[in-house]
């Protein structure tokens, strides 16, 4: 038995997911560049720890889904949402998952591809 604050209390609902706040990339970026950054992140993210087959895959699908579907995905995968925009989450074992804003939404300075 652990400390009451050390785990997600049973019966307590997960935080409701919301859209990330608008953000600006350090320099203007094209959609193709954004897609490339996202692909690179998802390809390397499991190497930072956590559960590849379950949690990382669920987070990727949730990041690419509409909010209501994303909520259902994280709830069914057992993801504990720390920040409502999904930038910080935990699994049931306490492993931390940090998602950069660029995998969750588009920057305000997105420019057209050439």
UniProtKB/TrEMBL annotation:
DC-UbP/UBTD2 N-terminal domain residues: 14-112
InterPro entries documented for this protein: DC-UbP/UBTD2_N, DC-UbP/UBTD2_N_sf, UBTD1/2
Pfam families given in the database record: UBD
Chain residue ranges for the region called Disordered: 1-29
Superkingdom to which the source organism belongs: Eukaryota
Record PANTHER family: UBIQUITIN DOMAIN CONTAINING 1 PROTEIN-RELATED
Name the record gives this protein: DC-UbP/UBTD2 N-terminal domain-containing protein
